[in-house]
Amino acid sequence: MPKLADDLSMTINTRINAMGPSKIRAFDEKASKIPGMIKLTIGEPDLNTPDHVKEAAIADINANDSHYAPQAGKPELLQAISSYLKRELDVDYNPETEICVTVGATGALNDVFMTILNPGDKILVPTPVWALYFQLIKMCGAIPVQVDTSKDGFILTPEHLRQVLREEGKGAKAIILTDPSNPTGCVYPAEILKELASVIKEFHLFSITDEIYGDLVYNGNVHHSLSQYIPERNILISGLSKAYAMTGWRLGYIAAPAQIMSSIRKTNAFLVTSVTDNVQAAAIEALNNGQEDPLEARKIYEKRLKFMKTGMEKLGFEMSTPQGAFYIFAKIPEAFGTDDEAFANELAAKAKVGVTPGRYFGKGGQGYVRLSYASSTKQLEEALKRIEKFVENI
C-alpha cells in the first residue's frame, strides 16, 4: 500500500487539517459497532422512495438518458421546482435564470457559501443547528458566528438578531436559518419571519434558508419562508431527501435572484458539472405527480412524534413540542446533570440506544440529546422500553 511522500505530508490545505471529522457521524459510527443497537442518531427516513418515483428513474435509464445534463438542471426539473415553490409558498422563481439543481442540499450549501463568502467574512448561524454548517463555512475561510437561541425557545428573535449584529456579529455578511429546525423541530411563525426580514434588510445581509424539512410540519403549523418577505435578499435551499425518502438520491436545489444565481450556477458547474440524469427524472416525477407523498409521510411521522414525546416526558425528559422535521431535542433528566455526551455514551453502552449529544449542534445544545423518530414504529417502541429501563435503573 502506498505511503504519502514525506515532503508532501505538510502541504495540504491547512483549513482541512484544522477541522475534525463530523462529531455526529463519528458518534453514529461508534454506536453502530455495538451489537443490537437501535440507532436514533441520523436523520434517515425508514420509509422507501415512492414506487412511481423509482419507476420514473428506471424508465429514464432504459431510455438511454446517459449523457451530460444541462449544468443548472434539466429544463423540465427547473420548471417543476418553480411550480412547486409557487404552489407551496406562493413565490415566483424563473426556471430559466433563478433556479439551480444540486447534488443534495449539502451540495447546495457548498455552492452558496463558496459563491458569497470571502475569507474573513462573518455569517450568523443560530444554534443549536446541524453542525456541518460550521465546517462548510470554515472551508471558505469565513467565520461562523454562533447565536445561541436556547433562552428564546430555540427561535431567533428579531431583538436578539439586532443585538448580535451590533456586537459580536457586527459587520456580518449573511445569516443562515434552518426552518423547520434540525435538531429542535421548531418552525418559525410568519410574524417572526417578517420581523427578522426587516432586521436583515436594515443591516444589508444576505439571508440563506435551509428548508429541506419544509414539507414535514405538524399540529396544524404552516411552513413559511423568508423568500416570501425578502426575495431580493434570500437564497432558498431545499431538496427531496427528507419528504420523499430520497436521501441516497442526492437531489437538492437553490432558488435566488438571477443576479446571484448566475454566479451560483457557475460554482455548481465547476464542482459537479451536472446532476445525474435518472435522479433528475425521478425528481421531476416526484414534484409533478407526488404531491400526496409528503402528506402520507407526515401522518406517519406525526404519530411517531406523539408516541415518543409522551413516553419520554413520563421519564423526566423536558422538551418543547417539535412542530416539524423528524427530531426530538430533549433535555436529559436532572439526575444525569448536564453532560449530554456522557449520557449518550452510557445510554448506548448500557441500553443499546443511540441518540446524539446536543453539544454537537453548537451553543445551547449542552444538556440535551437529539433523537430521530424517522425509524420504524417497532424500533421506536423497543427504544423507549430500553430508555425507560435505563433511566429507572439509574
Structure write-up:
There is one protein chain. This protein is of the alpha/beta class and 394 residues long. The chain folds into two domains: 6-49 and 293-393, Aspartate Aminotransferase, domain 1 (Alpha-Beta Complex); 64-289, Aspartate Aminotransferase, domain 2, CATH 3.40.640. Helices cover 41% and strands 13% of the residues. It contains 13 helices and twelve strands. The strands form three sheets. It has a seven-stranded mixed sheet, sandwiched between helices. Helix 3 (51-62) runs antiparallel to helix 10, helix 4 (75-89) runs parallel beside helix 10 (277-289) and helix 5 (104-116) crosses helix 9 (258-272). It is globular, with a radius of gyration of 21 Å. The chain starts with 13 loop residues before the first helix and ends with a helix. The mean pLDDT is 95. Pfam families: Aminotran_1_2. Its EC number is 2.6.1.-.
